[in-house]
Amino acid sequence: MSENSDKKTKLRVVVCGGGIAGLALASFLSKAEDITVDVYEAKSEVRTIGAGIAIWQCYWDLLKDAVGLEAKWCARGIPAPEWEQMKGPTLFRADDPANTHEFFQLDISPTVIPRTMLLETLLEETNKRCTIHTEKRLVSYFANDNGTVTLSFADGLTATADLLIGADGVHSQVRETMYRDTPELAQPVFSGQLAYRLKCRSESLPPDHRAHSRFLIWCGDGRFVTSNMVGEFVQMTAYDNVEVAADGKFCDDWVKQIPVDEVSQQYSGWDPELFSLLNASSDASRWAIHTVRPLTRYAVGQVALVGDAAHAMTPHIGLGGGQGIHDAFILSQLLMNSSIDRSSLGNALDVYDQIRRPASQRIAQWSLECGLMYGFLIPDKKDLPPDSLAKEFYMRTDWLRNKNVLNTELELAQNELRKSLQRGEKCQA
């Protein structure tokens, strides 16, 4: 564990998982001199997968101030996002070339940045005051009589802390241990959606191809494709819906390299621009999208969950990473409250669960519904006229127009914490 005297340290925190949510939490907590943070990562190095990550303005503003994201972005010669000028994805019907038409455009948009850049920024901030341990795969944890929690790793070593944060993703071992008596919540479940990821260099496309300058969602019966620019590349994801087994399991590799034409042939009768875009890719991979069923608690005892470990969701609003950052912000601010120490830790964790669980689970449901609507798969919404369909999308994204959404939620959380402490409650941790 990090070296700090007991007199100075009010909380010893262990974060299990060195992904975006885990490093965001560690970097936020690193601002508190009376909290020590150790990050345990299962792999041999902290790294991420995937090309780009969508960052909405509320999360950009947070990371700009907290970890200097915008300064690092601009240092690469890339201008900061001009949020007021940005438009969201354009949705158009693309499965009938004779009747291709736009039917909705979101008037707000995230910016898409390389995942590696975000991770490196968080890692740099985390390294200032936190200790990162690699090749530490968690096996289980157990609570001690003195109010601490002990972690056991695959290499036989252990660590003890006042608080364990599970930020170990959809395969979370922390969640599996927390819900060992409820296996249907402990394990991830196949969403019924397959995502085919492809990319091509923009220079390989005709100059007038619409994918050059617009974030597009190519919609059709039962499936859809997203395309957007990330640096010099057009990044594409084609989504298909398949039947889910009764046990919720996907009986093949979760990630698998496949031939490009296995994807493009599914769209051979669609808009020719989409077909040519898919065929311009040099390789493709298939990802089985797994989620987490709605949990009954995000915090039990001295253990809490953040990010995909708590609410792995479909990617159809671009909020999976953002919600992990959101969790990290609210939880870190509660833990850094001057009234919180070992004896009142349970109060902070109860408020975190009370605030973040319903909010993140609602967004996970909205994301799932948006994906189904892109493929016209919700029966009572399939044949809605364009203006009615637009209202459905607005309803699920309207909260993102509130630039102060994080501070509003934090104020609510701090008020709930204050009331809990004033009532003299000592929640069990």
TrEMBL record:
Phosphoprotein is among the record's keywords: no
SUPFAM superfamilies xrefs: FAD-linked reductases, C-terminal domain (SSF54373), FAD/NAD(P)-binding domain (SSF51905)
Keyword vocabulary terms for this entry: Coiled coil, FAD, Flavoprotein, Oxidoreductase
UniProt GO BP: secondary metabolite biosynthetic process
A family per Pfam: FAD_binding_3
Regions annotated as coiled coil: 396-423
An example molecular function term from Gene Ontology annotations: oxidoreductase activity
InterPro entries for the chain: FAD-bd, FAD/NAD-bd_sf, FAD_monoxygenase
FAD-binding domain segment(s): 11-367
Name of the protein this chain belongs to: FAD-binding domain-containing protein
Species this chain originates from: Aspergillus minisclerotigenes
